[in-house]
């Protein structure tokens, strides 16, 4: 599942770098905007500026000051939960913080 997410991120952003940190993979496209973290039963895609993401999709979870995440339990949920849309929104939200 992590490799499928990485492939989607690479496909979505022309300018991209990855860094292994905090037990996951962090993605940067001019600014760090998300990370993917693998657990035994699921994978989360974390958005450091996720609280600034608004929209009708409703898949973001979390109630902290800034961070939000999407929990994925299968490769099919990458598409079902519109991860590609959230990736672009996450980059825009991170750029607003800068």
From TrEMBL:
InterPro entries in the cross-refs: YdhG-like
Domain YdhG-like span(s) in chain numbering: 2-90
Pfam families: DUF1801
SUPFAM superfamilies, A to Z: YdhG-like
Protein name: DUF1801 domain-containing protein
